[in-house]
Amino acid sequence: MQHRKKKWLIVILLLLLLTTAIEAGRRVLLVSSLYRLNLRTRATLAPMPPPRAGEKIIIFAPHPDDETLGAGGLIQQAVAAGASVRVVLATNGEYPLVTLFKHAIQKTPQAFVKLGYKRQKETLKAMEAFGLSPESVTFLGYPNHHLQLMWLPVHWLPSSPVRSVILRATHSPYRNSMTPGAPFCGQSLLQDIETILVKERPDTLIIPHPNDIHVDHWTTYAFVQLALNELIANGQAFATKCRVYTYLIHRPYWPAPKGYHPFSTLTPPARILATHETEWFGLPLTVAQMIDKRKSIGLYRSQAGAIDPVMQSFARGNELFGIVPVKTWHLKKTCPPVAIIVDAVKDMPASTANPRADIALVTLQRINNRMRLRITTSKPPDPRVVFHFSIHVSGKSEADRVIAQYECAGSKAKGLVYHSGRVIKLNRSVSARIDGGQVILEAPWPITLESQAFFMTRAWTTRGKHLLDETRVSTFSLSKGIEALRRKG
């Protein structure tokens, strides 16, 4: 009897090992196919207009090193042309790659703050090599790996800031933050960005691409775009004329080929390119500019910039930038479904392996005082997958702001809405169902004031604690709101 039990245990163990091996093999094939697809991608890039004398340029970077990886060549060309350049760092990147294990052992907030200052110095050295003075660099000092939480309703106000896990703080501990002791909340970050924009009045903004999968990158895009939207709503002429270019750093198995390939050029990831949601540009670099950029990448020693193959991938014959258009929605009391998010499919290993969670399209429809959201996936949606959706409505002032966050799984749904300084639960007024191969979510219509001029949306899917898919941040201007502001102005 015991011998038979042992045999069954061995069989079960072998089956588990076989299943694990098959799953691992499948993931290797998925990774390999995505990398090969990016490697084969060819794109005709429009030439990016070179910087000109007197032009005011602001580069927003989520962490120290992103400004060099994404726009090191542009900075060199701008300085040489006589343009004005300011670099703004949203966080100090106190979450290292090379020294993570060492600092994880120390587990002291002071050690992480020390690392943040070290990474600041690395950026200052790199910018000095490009010809920028320390006065041209601004450190905002918000928490690394936490900006996405500040975008949501619950952490918008200073009264409910995010608590940084590694800093063990809810306010900036850095002495040289633009706002000393700034609370880790969305309102504070937005105010800092708006202050910089109004003071500098830039002609050109260089910011992360909304399809960047790093939590601090897409959020930096969202906050800068939100600040620009509100300045436009307030009639700031420079904001209306300001050109916005985006740069991409984090996408699965991109850039391809990986590593230092000076004779290769950067092209957009294949799946993102196929959506036609971004107009892509290439900025050619001279050999000297490319070499100087590579040297500056090597200055980020805390990130092993001199040897890290991903960082070295950005030292190439060009830099890649994209314009992500702000679309206009002609708002009516009742209107047909509008495609607010067109997402790349099979663009991430997790979403490729889980096609029933792979978002392809999101439409939004207004029916009187209700909204109907439809999410289409590569294959009919899995009722066990949690679908998330956020919307950020803005206008001329804080009174116009509505931040809503919804989630649903099968027929279960709930929501949170921030408005007028309060966060309200919407559990009873939110419903969801799966119908016709789509997730359908209905909730109160969030745009209720004439002065609300813009809204920004994003969707993502999870199962347990695992992120399966995420879309870019999409931005719309509301024709009704813009017209109302013009009449008042």
Task: Explain what this protein looks like in three dimensions.
This protein folds into three domains: 1-40; 46-323, LmbE-like (Rossmann fold); 327-488, Immunoglobulin-like (Sandwich). The N and C termini lie far apart (88 Å). A hairpin with a 2-residue loop joins strand 17 (431-435) and strand 18. Helix 6 (186-200) packs across helix 7. The strands form four sheets. Strands 9, 13, 14, 15, 16, 19, 20 and 21 form an eight-stranded mixed sheet that branches. A five-stranded parallel sheet has the order 4-3-2-5-6, with helices on both faces. A five-stranded antiparallel sheet has the order 10-11-12-18-17, with no helix packed on it. The chain has 13 helices and 21 strands. The protein is an alpha/beta fold and 489 residues long.
Short synopsis of the structure:
The protein is an alpha/beta fold.
Key attributes of the depicted protein:
489 residues, alpha/beta, Rossmann fold, Immunoglobulin-like, eight-stranded mixed beta sheet, five-stranded parallel beta sheet, 13 helices, globular
The helix tally amounts to 13
The structural domain count equals: 3
CATH superfamily of the largest domain: LmbE-like
Structural class: alpha/beta
Please give the structural blueprint:
Layout: H1 2-40, E1 46-47, E2 56-61, H2 66-81, E3 84-91, H3 100-106, H4 109-130, E4 137-142, H5 147-150, H6 186-200, E5 204-208, H7 215-233, H8 237-241, E6 243-247, H9 270-275, E7 279-284, H10 287-297, H11 309-312, E8 318-323, E9 327-329, E10 338-342, H12 349-353, E11 359-367, E12 370-377, E13 386-394, E14 402-409, E15 412-419, E16 422-425, E17 431-435, E18 438-444, E19 454-463, E20 466-470, E21 474-478, H13 479-488
Parallel strand pairs: 1-7, 2-3, 2-5, 3-4, 5-6, 9-21
Antiparallel strand pairs: 7-8, 10-11, 11-12, 12-18, 13-14, 13-19, 14-15, 15-16, 17-18, 19-20, 19-21
Helix pairs in contact: 2-4, 2-10, 4-10, 6-7
